[in-house]
Design goal:
The protein is mostly helical and 203 residues long. The protein has eight helices and no strands.
Length: 203
Amino acid sequence: VSGSSVEPPRCAGGNTVTGTDALRPPGWTYNPSSWSERLWLIGVAILGFLISGYLGLYQWGILASVWEPWFGRGSETVLHSPLSRVLPVPDAIVGAMAYGIDAVAGAIGGTRRWKTMPWMVVLFGLAVGPLGLVSVLLVTAQPLLLHAWCTLCLLSAVISVVMIGPAMDEVLASLQVLKRAKEQRKAVWTTFWKGEGKAVWSG
């Protein structure tokens, strides 16, 4: 109609909803699924994969020695300890696999995956969170049980812990999607697998 105009939608409080706003979870000031939030996580996960893979190759005997600049034979003591052999495969190999899952899970999906792929975000969080906790426990055990330190093990643990916060932010956004589905009496399980807007009324 001549002389008329269509205003863009507005969110609560009267602020205009822009394309950027639509990518953010409601009430958030940033998008936890944006590539700026995820690329560095993928990068450090790859670094963790390389470090853990290197340590695992030493534990398997494929490498004859391991790099240790600070603690003498500390790395050898830690990596050949009974604690590192609790599982059927060396703990560093388990860590490498976990970092690999982190990198792949962090790369899958677009910048709206917090709402379109909650299952992938939760999988990412489950891969990152337990790895960080296990790393803290292993680092704590080094001086208490083994009386030795391992430089690359410490670096791997730092990487694990640093990843937890940002990964849990994205998980929180996806959990809020599931909460809204429940409040709106939509099928939460369908929302979990197919994303917001794909679920039907649960009755």
